[in-house]
Specification:
By secondary structure, the protein is an alpha/beta fold. It is built from 28 helices and 20 strands. Among the domains are: 78 residues, no CATH class; 253 residues, Glycogen Phosphorylase B (Rossmann fold). The strands form 4 sheets. Strands 1, 2, 5, 6, 7, 8, 9, 10, 13 and 14 form a 10-stranded mixed sheet that branches. Strands 17-16-15-18-19-20 form a 6-stranded parallel sheet, sandwiched between helices. It has a two-stranded antiparallel ribbon with strand order 3-4. Strand 15, helix 21 and strand 16 form a beta-alpha-beta unit. It is globular, with a radius of gyration of 25 Å. The protein starts with a helix and ends in a 5-residue tail after the last helix. The structure holds pyridoxal-5'-phosphate (PLP). The site of pyridoxal-5'-phosphate has 12 residues, from helix 7 and helix 23.
């Protein structure tokens, strides 16, 4: 028994379990309530649960064999020959460093706010699967993004809950004498220290810098206290820590990094630190050093609008970088400040723009979908004699979003190693109607069960009546066409779009023969009153006497809720104002679970859409010049038309077996054509082949 427990502990300290349904099942079987209570944190679970009870449950539920098997699988995973080894070479030392301000790996590590973080997390997971010699660098925020509660009046309220790093499946990095390794950075008039937390994500290491150490003043400790919060000084100090501190960490660890990947502009100060090091090492000029580093920096932009980019004032930059420019980079402050702008573009020359800094210093540039790369090329209009912005479309880490039900179907029909087979998605799409349709029904029922329980529990905390709490256990219909909309409530995503014409919406929802139901989820940024008012509006509609129980809002959209939603929804709806959705990834997460997409042709869907794969909402025009109200109305009408005339009939037209054959046919095409391509496996391979292995 002792050995079994140790195996379970060993697995729990590698975030490999976050995409492993079998490990989840072990904890669920021991005690599901408790597993949820720990926010699915196995370290907290194992540390706090009564050991005798644990042994008892392992015996009683016959889990020994399952634990042993998971352990063997885990060990095998770490050792097996990978894509990188097969196509390139074997190396123990990391050669690629990936920098990102947020990482979404699993719910209990609150170090992400939305799509950018989830993408970084998936990049790391797929790098592990592919065996890339890559390390990730980020910041260990004490408070990540907030926990969302919807009040009884439908308003979002925000609660900040701290990460407790010592109770998380991570380690502090220490030297041979077990004392914590620390890096230091220079800020005006002082030195600031940071300790390092190491996450193991399969084969890949992820390092997070944390300023809560004794050497720092109270104020400096708080540099990493919160993700995307606080004033502009905190923002620049965090970015100095990420870019400059991150580079120092790689040096302390003695890594000989060949390729530096900047995921968005937050880490762009890294470029300066690399130049500084080269100037010192080779005794060369700023321009020579810049040239030397240029061919090994990779910059990925995610932002189709200037307002989304970090900018700092001249005054602020003078305060933080005047002496750095003169003493370390050996250039005048004016010359230095120019690095933060681009000739020929519309950026304000009086501001230091982090995307410009990254673009000026990176040979390899990309946007995150074909359409976004086009938008970015127009936005930045780079001179012809330099490298241009390419496109590498985003993806998702398939296993992280695959339901246990879907995985079991694939395993049963294609063997345990199904996902490793080439052309697996073509084979999967050949599964008979009955199997695919049963998988859909089972997935949808699970989501509805989850939603009922969650709603009922929430009502308990709101001190609702017993009747209301009971009533919540009967909301939604297990067999109805279920449409999901979940994402950040940034206003351009138009979270309230389905309510444009409530009469048309009601005729869809209240149709007794062919009912449609909606599940919403998502957070608005605490400062975004527009986004918050959308949330309030939806929550008001959930209480409408006719719509109640047919339109539901789930609080606190995070990775755990996302996984439930993407497995269960029949349709994943997305309604951004084109071209503001650079890629979007949540729609990709439904593919392998048999969900279908219905969206504006923006981001990834603009290149994925074909009639056989799903549905589109028509747009009036590509440019942003058209009157917004006119455009909204046109697109909303298109949305209702497609729902009424195409989607609903397709879902409800059944053959004698009760199967909607045309619908299942679409699922099959969507899986075959899209599920293999829109993954971070394909994406990371592209980064590797186009960029990482081309650096010099
Ligand atoms: C996938 C995901 C996102 C990103 O979704 P978009 O479609 O890009 O908006 C955001 N938050 C969570 C929790 C996710 O799982």
């Amino acid at each position: 028994m002792y050995e079994i427990l140790n195996q379970l502990k060993e697995i729990s300290y590698n975030l490999y379990w976050t995409w492993n349904n079998d490990v989840y099942e072990i904890f669920r079987e021991i005690n599901d309530e408790y597993w949820r209570w720990t926010e699915r944190n196995p370290v907290k679970f194992l540390e706090t649960i009564d050991e005798n009870y644990l042994y008892e449950m392992i015996e009683k539920k016959n889990l020994k064999e399952k634990i042993r098997n998971s352990y063997i699988q885990y060990k095998k995973y770490l050792k097996e020959k990978t894509y990188f080894q097969t196509h390139y070479f074997k190396t123990e030392k990391p050669l690629i460093a990936y920098f990102s301000a947020e990482y979404g790996i699993t719910k209990c590590l609150k170090l992400y706010s939305g799509g950018l973080g989830v993408l970084s997390g998936d990049h790391i997971k797929s790098s592990s699967d592919l065996g890339l010699p890559l390390v990730g660098i980020g910041l260990a925020y004490l408070y990540g993004y907030f926990t969302q509660y919807i009040n009884s009046d439908g308003r979002q309220s925000e609660l900040f809950e701290p990460n407790r790093f010592e109770k998380l499946p991570i380690h502090r990095v220490t030297d041979e004498d077990f004392s914590p390794i620390k890096i230091s950075i220079e800020l005006p008039g002082r030195t600031v220290y940071a300790q390092i937390w190491e996450f193991r994500v399969g084969r890949v290491k992820l390092f997070m810098l944390d300023t809560f150490v004794d050497e720092n003043t109270v104020n400096d400790k708080r540099i990493t206290d919160i993700l995307y919060g606080g004033n502009i000084e905190k923002r620049i100090e965090q970015e100095i820590l990420l870019g400059i501190g991150g580079k120092k960490l790689l040096d302390i660890l003695n890594y000989d990094i060949k390729a530096f990947h900047l995921n968005e502009g937050h880490s762009a100060f890294l470029c300066l630190e690399r130049i500084k090091n080269s100037i010192e090492k080779y005794n060369i000029s700023f321009n020579e050093a810049k040239q030397l580093c240029y061919y090994s920096n990779i910059f990925t932009t995610h932002t189709p609008v200037p307002a989304g980019i970090d900018i700092f004032s001249r005054k602020l930059m003078t305060h933080y970088f005047e002496s750095y420019a003169q003493n370390h980079l050996k250039i005048s402050f004016d010359e230095f400040f120019n690095e933060g702008s681009l000739a020929g573009t519309k950026v304000n020359k009086e501001q230091f723009n982090m995307a410009c800094l990254a673009i000026n210093n990176s040979h390899f540039l990309n946007g995150v979908s074909k359409l976004h790369a086009e938008t970015a090329r127009k936005m930045w209009a780079l001179p012809d004699n330099r490298s241009q912005i390419e496109s590498i479309t985003n993806g998702i880490h398939t296993k992280s979003y695959l339901s246990y039900i879907s995985e079991r179907v694939y395993r049963k029909n294609f063997g345990v190693d199904w996902l490793k087979h080439e052309n697996i998605w073509e084979k999967i799409s050949e599964l008979p109607d009955e199997i695919l349709w049963r998988m859909r029904n089972d997935n949808r029922r699970q989501l509805i069960k989850f939603t009922r329980k969650r709603t009922s529990n929430k009502l308990k905390t709101l001190k609702a009546t017993d009747d209301e709490i009971q009533d919540a256990l009967h909301i939604l219909n297990e067999n109805a066409l279920t449409i999901g909309f979940a994402r950040r409530f940034a206003t351009y995503k138009r979270g309230n779009f389905i309510f444009t014409n409530v009469a048309r919406l009601k005729s869809l929802v209240l149709n007794s023969e062919r009912p449609v139901q909606f599940i919403f989820s998502g957070k608005a940024h605490p400062m975004d009153e527009g986004g918050k008012s959308f949330i309030e509006e939806i929550n008001r509609w959930t209480k409408d006497p006719e719509l109640h129980g047919k339109i539901v809002f789930i609080d606190n959209y995070e990775l755990d809720v996302a996984k439930e939603l993407v497995k269960g929804c029949d349709i994943w709806l997305n309604t951004p104002r084109r071209p503001l959705e650079a890629s979007g990834t949540s729609g990709m997460k439904v593919l392998a679970n048999g969900g279908l997409n219905f969206s504006i042709l923006d981001g990834w869907w603009a290149e994925a859409y074909r009639e056989e794969n799903g549905w589109k909402i028509d747009t009036i025009s590509e440019d942003m010049m058209t009157d917004i109200a006119e455009r909204d109305l046109f697109e909303a009408n298109s949305m209702y038309d497609v729902l009424e005339h195409l989607i609903v009939p397709c879902f409800y037209e059944r053959d004698q077996r009760g199967i909607p054959t045309a619908w299942v046919k679409k699922i099959r095409s969507s899986i075959r054509n899209l599920a293999g391509y829109f993954t971070t496996w394909r994406m990371v391979k592209e980064y590797n082949e186009k960029f990482y292995t081309k650096v010099s």
